[in-house]
Amino acid sequence: MVTRTLDIHHINTGREQLRAHSHEFREEVIKVVDGVHVAVGYSLGNAILIQGDGGSIIVDTLSNVVDAREVKAEFDKISRAPVRAIVYMHFHPDHVGGAAAFSGNDQPDIYSHQLLAERAPDIGRANKDGGNQYGSGLGGRRVSMGR
C-alpha cells in the first residue's frame, strides 16, 4: 500500500494562482493602440475592433451571437462606424459564431481561409485531435497547425 501526504498549502496556492489567472480574463475591452481595441473575457475567443476611415474591421466574432451582441454594445461605445469587413483568423467555432451581431445591416466583406468558405467549422472529428484543435481534414491528407 502506498500512502501519500496531501500538501494542503500547495493546493491552496494553486487555487490562488488559478483565481489570479482568471482575473486576467475578466470581461473588458482593452485599448491596444489608437484605433485598435480587443474584447477579452466575454467568450471563449477574443474579438478585435480596428477603426478605419469610413468604417471598422472586426477580427473574429466570438463563439455565439449572444456573446457577440454584448461585445458589439461595448464596441459601439467606442465607434458607431459601419462594419466594412470581418476577418476570421481561423475556422474554429470560438472565432466564427457571432458574425450576425457585428454585421447587422452593414453587409461587410468577409475574409477567411478558403476552408471556412468551403465548409462549416469543425466542431469535432470523431474524437481525433481534440475536436480538430490542431489541424483540418483534407480528404485523407492533413494540414498541421501548431504542431
Describe this structure in words.
By secondary structure, this protein is α/β, with parallel strands linked by helices. The protein has a domain at 26-124: 4-Layer Sandwich (Metallo-beta-lactamase, Chain A). It is built from 6 helices and 8 strands; from the N terminus they run αββββαβααβααββ. It has helices spanning 8-23, 65-76, 93-96, 99-103, 114-118, 129-132; strands at 28-33, 36-40, 47-52, 55-59, 83-87, 109-111, 135-138, 141-144. A 6-stranded mixed beta sheet has the order 1-2-3-4-5-6. A two-stranded antiparallel ribbon has the order 7-8. A hairpin with a 2-residue loop joins β7 and β8 (141-144). The longest helix has 16 residues, at 8-23. The protein is globular. The model is unreliable at 123-147 (pLDDT under 50).
